[in-house]
Amino acid sequence: MSDQPTFVLVHGAFANSFSFAPLQAELGLLGHRSVAVDLPGHGFEATFPAAYQAPQDLDALAAEPGNIKGVTLADNAARVIGVLERAKRNGPTVLVGHSRGGATITAVGNARPELIDRIVYVSAWCPVDLDVSGYYAQPEMADVDPGAFAATLVGNPAELGVLRTNFRTADPAALDAFKRAFAADLTDDEFRTFLNTFQPDENLDAGTSADRARAATWGRIPRTYVRLAADASVPPAVQDRMIREADALTPDNPFDVRTLEGSHLRWLVHPAPAAALLADLAVGHGASSGLPRAGD
What we know:
The chain is α/β, with parallel strands linked by helices. The protein has a single domain (6-282), classed as 3-Layer(aba) Sandwich (Rossmann fold), CATH 3.40.50. The chain is built from twelve helices and eight strands. The protein has helices at 21-29, 58-61, 73-87, 101-111, 132-135, 147-150, 157-160, 172-182, 188-195, 236-249, 266-269, 272-282; strands at 6-10, 33-37, 93-98, 118-122, 163-164, 201-202, 223-228, 256-260. The strands form two sheets. The protein has a six-stranded parallel sheet with strand order 2-1-3-4-7-8, sandwiched between helices. Helix 1 crosses helix 12 (272-282) and helix 3 (73-87) packs across helix 4 (101-111). The protein is globular, with a radius of gyration of 19 Å. The protein starts with 5 loop residues before the first strand and ends in a 14-residue tail after the last helix. Residues 285-296 have low confidence and may be disordered.
């Protein structure tokens, strides 16, 4: 068994394992192994109806079934637990979640803390005092543009059983709203390239109060929160709130807090700083790392 950890990477809403390809390349060049997980209904399990192709038929798209319907947060957690069980055979594991993926890794930490040597949130939801949905009503989210998705929603989520978004829109106003929310510091080409890796459907279950971080299990895992300083989707104020709440839940095991410059997506498009940060965690800097130091 190796002393080197395996990074297990969990994507956010509408994303997939493809999002992590540049980061995995950087980690590999630094000598680290990683696994990017496709949550159920994501990646090659996603639904891409013909009506979503060009030319689009939005009326037909609004009625097309999506195979992510019925997928739950528990299903997401089970998928990640299966990956961790296999990865753990090779040595330590570092579980990394981005954005909505934070809800999944929190559920995993609640259920199977023994599979995780360090849990890392990158501008990710870490529900402690509130459900994920509850944070959206808080003052820290007041500046988040609720219209970023509204103009591109397709169909009725209650009828479809999925949240469907037209990321292939050519509407300049909608594209501008997306860019401001997720990637204001990327070029237009970088932004549109990333947008084309998104899938149209996401499941409706972001968890309940039963899925908030639990002190007895999740709370004993060494943890890091990577703040994204210019994130307009999960603003620094709400990132800091979740850090404070988690530290109050388990004051003897606080977050190791790091900060990267940039927007919600920049760290995935220009991943060298993030890869260096993760590599630093892997060599065990800090007494609470839970991972071996280089040379140990």
